[in-house]
Specification:
heterodimer, A: about 425 residues, alpha/beta, 11-stranded mixed beta sheet, B: about 90 residues, mainly alpha, two-stranded antiparallel sheet, 3 helices, about 35% helix, flat
């Protein structure tokens, strides 16, 4: 078969003898720590890094009997929308050859699309599970912030990111979510299950395809400016849901017009702080110890980081620096609160909100690398969900000549079962 | 007149704050791109001030000793170590 450059490290790790995922294969994004198995984050900086411990999500996979197939290719440290900023070369989209698989969890989505793994884990900071799911024609879920432990996920922007599952069907992805979800004593941002609920939720049981009576809100702002073929495919899918008993109304979400810039200011600011630890002392490329601490540090980071990572760390440093903090960071936090309010009020009159996952079909490889701003703008529909800490799912809705189109359902906080039910009516 | 676009000096200054060496090509490219990107970020000025009630709760646990990585495991990825310590460049 063709090589799509799906894996950075292809190595099988067997899980427990039995469990809910026994006999299933799972590909794991290379920013999720695996004990004894190289974890590079798609970066030269961690090219030889071997974690001494498992991420909680990985431990749960193994306990559930899954077989790990390897560590998948990704944009360096999760920074990208195309899986082309990896230090290990770009991944190609198996569902639209010659095009990008989306990013940053492109290797994970592509591994599922190519049939190389039954399931996969990715991470979603501003759409990094949903975007590649949409471009590769598979299902991806971004859980509510706090549902899945981030322990062992190499952090990029802590307040935004969640580990999320991929599958070929909604039921498959939901099954994987059930395995990794739940409180974790190693991550204080995970939410405790309410005292009267069962500790583990069977999300797959919600994939019953029953949307009769479901009310769908369609934010018009997320259709404005989208590619024509994408919009057509989106409305065809809504019509199909209507035929199954759902109804829809249009909603206004004025705040989403500012979500992308708020997202990037916050994510870059958090990145500038998180990536400060890569100094070549505890891990990273060897330094020759000739200069002083600062000189060595700057040299190691020049050699270890790729251009997109440098761009974001620098912009984040700038946004947080004296004189600019109020202008960028504080304003971005205001926008974040506004987005959250907008979503909460729209979800008072709707069970789910629906939009195209990506406003564009998969880009041709190489096309967007030279224009970072253009790449950032492609994240318009996914980033608001991370700012609002809500759950969302991307399901295949059809194809244009340029490749698959994904439909995104957004639900209320911890309303995973609702978006899974909605998605299962389509895939 | 609007603020001057980000100049090369400013890019170099931020790069030194972030402790990342840049070559001249990168400085040129970033100066140009940052002007566009920061210009776009300025549309945040249109965002109204929003009353946000953060739904936060402290999560505390007893401060008790528990299992952790062994010294050997913690050092296994270090490019250089000596007698159980990380070895880094001189401070000044």
């Amino acid at each position: 078969m063709m090589s799509y450059n799906l894996y950075i490290t292809e190595e099988t790790v067997e899980g427990a003898a039995d469990g809910p995922l026994a006999g299933r294969t799972v590909a794991v994004k290379d920013n999720i720590s695996t004990a004894g198995l190289r974890t590079t984050c798609g970066s030269e900086m961690l090219a030889d890094y071997v974690p001494p411990y498992d991420a909680t999500a990985v431990k749960r996979l193994k306990d559930a009997g899954a077989t790990i197939t390897g560590k998948t290719n990704m944009d360096e440290f999760g920074m990208g929308t195309t899986t082309e900023t990896s230090a290990f070369g770009p991944t190609e989209n198996p569902a639209a050859e010659g095009r990008v698989p989306g990013g940053s969890s492109g290797g994970s989505a592509a591994a599922v699309a190519a049939g190389e793994a039954d399931l996969a884990l990715g991470s979603d900071t501003g759409g990094s599970v949903r975007c590649p799911a949409a471009f590769c024609g598979v299902v991806g879920i971004k859980p509510t912030y706090g549902l899945v432990s981030r322990y062992g996920l190499v952090a990029y922007a802590n307040s935004l990111e969640q580990i999320g599952p991929f599958g070929r069907t909604v039921e498959d992805a939901a099954e994987l979510l059930s395995v990794v979800a739940g409180p974790d004593e190693y991550d204080a941002t995970t939410r405790e299950a309410p005292p009267d609920s069962e500790a583990a939720v069977d999300y797959a049981a919600a994939a019953d395809g029953d949307v009769d009576g479901m009310e769908i809100g369609v934010p018009t702002e997320l259709l404005d400016g989208a590619d024509e073929g994408v919009v057509e495919t989106f409305w065809d899918a809504i019509a199909e849901l209507e035929a199954q008993g759902a109804s829809y109304h249009e909603v206004d979400l004025p705040s989403v017009e500012h979500a992308v810039e708020a997202y990037y200011v916050i994510a870059m600011s958090e990145a500038s702080s998180n990536l400060a630890r890569f100094d070549g002392v505890r891990y990273g490329p060897e330094s020759d110890h000739e200069g002083n601490w600062n000189e060595e540090f700057a040299d190691v980071r020049d050699r270890g980081f790729g251009e997109e990572v440098k761009r974001r760390v620098l912009l984040g440093t700038y946004a947080l620096s004296a004189g600019y903090h109020d202008k960028y960071y504080k304003k971005a936090q205001d926008a974040r609160a506004w987005v959250k309010q907008d979503f909460d009020s729209a979800l008072e009159d709707a069970d789910v909100l629906a939009s195209p996952t990506m406003p564009v079909p998969p880009m041709a490889m190489g096309e967007s690398l030279d224009d970072p701003l253009r790449m950032y703008l492609a994240d318009a529909n996914t980033t608001p969900v991370n700012l609002a800490n809500l759950p969302a799912i991307s399901v295949p809705a059809g194809e244009t000549d340029e490749g698959p189109v994904g439909l995104q359902f957004v639900g209320p906080a911890f309303g995973e079962e609702t978006i899974i039910r909605a998605g299962s009516a389509l895939a | 007149m609007s603020d001057p676009a980000v100049d090369r000096e400013e890019v170099r200054h931020v790069a030194s704050l972030a402790r990342i060496d840049l070559d001249d090509d990168e400085v040129d490219r970033f100066a140009e791109q940052f002007a566009d990107i920061l210009d776009y970020f300025e549309t945040l000025d249109e965002v109204p001030e929003v009353e946000s009630e953060a739904d936060l709760a402290n999560v505390m646990r007893p401060d008790e000793e528990r299992e952790s990585l062994s010294q050997e495991d913690a050092l296994q990825n270090a490019p250089d170590s000596e007698a159980g310590f990380f070895k880094g460049p001189k401070v000044s």
